[in-house]
Amino acid sequence: NTLGAGKSFVTANKAMIAHHGLELARAAEAAGVALKFEAAVAGGVPVIKGLREGAAANAIGQVYGILNGTCNFILSKMEAEGRDFAEVLAEAQALGYAEADPSFDIDGVDAAHKLSILASIAFGTRPAFGDVAASGIRHLLGADIAEAAALGYRVRLLGLAEAGPNGLFQRVHPHLVPLDHPLAHVTGSLNAVVAEGNFVGRLLFQGAGAGDGPTASAVVADLIDIARGEYGPPFAMPVASLAAAPKADSGERRGRAYLRFTVADKVGVLAEIAAAMRDAGVSIESLIQRGASGEGSVLVAIVTHEGPERAVAQALEKLRGSQSLVGQPMWMHILG
After folding, report:
1. Which residues are CB-neighbours of 20 under 8 A, at least 6 positions away?
2. Spatial contact of 162 and 169, defined as CB atoms under 8 Å apart
3. Residues 6+ apart with CB under 8 A from 30
4. Residues 288, 293, 296, 297: is their CA dihedral positive or negative?
5. 272 close to 284: Cβ distance less than 8 angstroms
6. Which of 77, 114, 247, 266 is catalytic?
7. Do 235 and 21 meet the contact criterion of CB atoms below 8 Å apart?
8. Which of 69, 129, 131, 178 has a CB 3.0–4.6 Å from the CB of 18, allowing a cystine?
9. Given a cut of 80, is residue 143 above it in pLDDT?
10. Considering all CA atoms of the chain, what is the largest pairwise distance in Å, rounded to the nearest integer?
């Protein structure tokens, strides 16, 4: 109704933009008014303006980053204090960083909303929230954080989007991030977004991703743009020019992976896991087994050589239902 009445519209509602941004942008174009949503992604960090305007001369190869402050707060606490997920989540809820029902945050849905918006602006495609493969940090153990540290990594929940000849790839998933990468040093509730441009190289946008002040800063910045008469297409180009990119097949993507299994402390378990990896064509770079817990289970952590993601998925499928596994395996990609 606002846009139809010829009035510009500013919002911080990332779910609305992710689900209905295309129709809202079309309505804004028809009315000749502005649709602005800087605060919808990364709070006070001007990443939407940076991609839409500052990096407009570049072809963006990838856009990825830490898009949820709640998850980053939890991971940073687990990392710094050696505590488990459930304990730190309870603290985050007590401090107001996490909702009473934290599912949108810890299962990656909030980050997926933001990623679909960033991908549209970065690659000139229609927002496609339904094509984002999202998983979160709900099943992460303190032992995973410790293993990552021993290997020279830190765990971060990353949203990553990449456009290629086979379509648009979008995923929110926990990653092992090398210590020499700037995202490994983004802690607490901060957000950070990396864009890789063909001319400018790596761009890093970092800052407060939530809270009254950062959100108000972004909203007022949008209002100032409107007062200046700076409208422009909401998704960097007219709606008619936005491509309907197909969803890219993640199975063909290549990379290294961290796999963690909690298994029964009995003979033959390692052989069973190794056989599943072999049969699926997964090459193991390293395998670490930790001692038995009070429940009689042990932790097995595997780092793979670079290979297709489809092979890892097949190996995990072969192990599905195994009596040797205690609980769900953890699969984290290693940021290259």
Report:
1. none
2. yes
3. none
4. negative
5. no
6. 114
7. yes
8. 129
9. yes
10. 72
pLDDT in tens, 192-246: 999 999 999 999 999 998 888 999 999 999 999 999 999 999 999 999 999 999 9
Name the 3-class secondary structure at 259: strand
> Is the pLDDT score of 107 beyond 80?
yes
CA distance 40 to 193: 14
CA-closest candidate to residue 131, choices 145, 120, 141, 140: 120
- Does the pLDDT of residue 291 top 80, yes or no? no
Give per-residue pLDDT as tens, 154-204: 999 999 999 999 999 999 999 999 999 999 999 999 999 999 999 999 999
| Residue partners of 198: CB distance under 8 A and separation at least 6 | 58, 59, 60, 61
Mean pLDDT of the residues in the chain? 95
Joined tokens for residue 86:
């459930």
The Cα 10–Cα 14 span in angstroms is: 11
Instruction: Respond yes or no: is residue 114 known to be catalytic.
Output: yes
Q: Where are the domains of the chain?
A: 47-241, 251-334
Predicted local confidence at residue 96, as pLDDT: 85
Q: Are 123 and 163 in contact (CB under 8 A)?
A: yes
pLDDT at 14: 97
Q: What is the Cα–Cα distance from 76 to 155, expressed in whole angstroms?
A: 9
Has domain 47-241 been given CATH number 3.40.47.10?
A: no
Fold classification of 251-334 (topology level): Alpha-Beta Plaits (3.30.70)
Sign for the CA dihedral angle at 105, 109, 115, 120 comes to negative
The dihedral region occupied by 232, where left means phi > 0, alpha psi between -120 and 50, and beta the remainder, is left
Share of the chain above pLDDT 90, in %: 91
pTM exceeding the 0.70 threshold for the entire prediction: yes
